[in-house]
């Protein structure tokens, strides 16, 4: 089975933006009484669930036989040529506190390779996207990673662990290193947004551990199409399902990887 990625991409953009409009509307009247707890510091709301149900209904119509992997609802994906990987609200904790960024992330995988990615950041009304062999775009304008070539001149993004603290000592060492040896470290609270900001050149690099596929699938494809490089902490390609990721522009990647690898794997 093959699909028209241009047609699919336009529909996914519309779907992500419509889900984002719903999220924006719900935030105006959101109450802390509507929060449910999935695990330690891991929250979900009716907004996450309703957004995913809406996205699922749209994507099912687009590719009826595709698998679906979502943060709030997991369907069978084994043996499926096409697989949707979806985070209906990346940055739920930010959303709960009325703080941006938070985003809708929709990725399409074909036979273990990403072929489409859309990330809609709700607060800034920005849609990042790429599909097939296209460049990466934001709101119709082509984007590229920055050309900064040294960590000392870079702005680094990361995410703080909220439930898995098994690598916290190494992570703290990495934070100290980048605080001392770069333009600074930022934690925005939405991995999908962090990655597309690397794609646009706002950040030079990003790293984090204990992420899920829906956090990174769409955004990593967009980043690659924008000229970025991505790997896991050991330099391999298991960054979508492997729960660890290093991402950077091409110029700084070798140095950035060597630092994260040394600190986080020893």
Helix-strand sequence: HEEHEEHEEEEEEHEHEHEEH
Overall shape: it is globular
> Mind describing the biggest β-sheet?
7 strands, mixed
Overall residue-averaged pLDDT value: 92
Read across the widest sheet, the strand sequence of neighbours is: 3-4-5-6-7-8-9
DSSP strand count: 14
| CATH homology-level superfamily of the largest domain | Fructose-1,6-Bisphosphatase, subunit A, domain 1
Low-pLDDT windows of residues:
38-43
**Into which percentage range does the β-strand content fall?**
25-35%
Please, how many domains? 2
Which range best describes the helical content: under 10%, 10-25%, 25-40%, 40-55%, 55-70% or over 70%?
Answer: 25-40%
Q: Write the CATH fold name of the largest domain.
A: Fructose-1,6-Bisphosphatase, Chain A, domain 1
Please report the distance between the alpha carbons of the first and last residues: 44 Å
CATH architecture of the largest domain: 2-Layer Sandwich
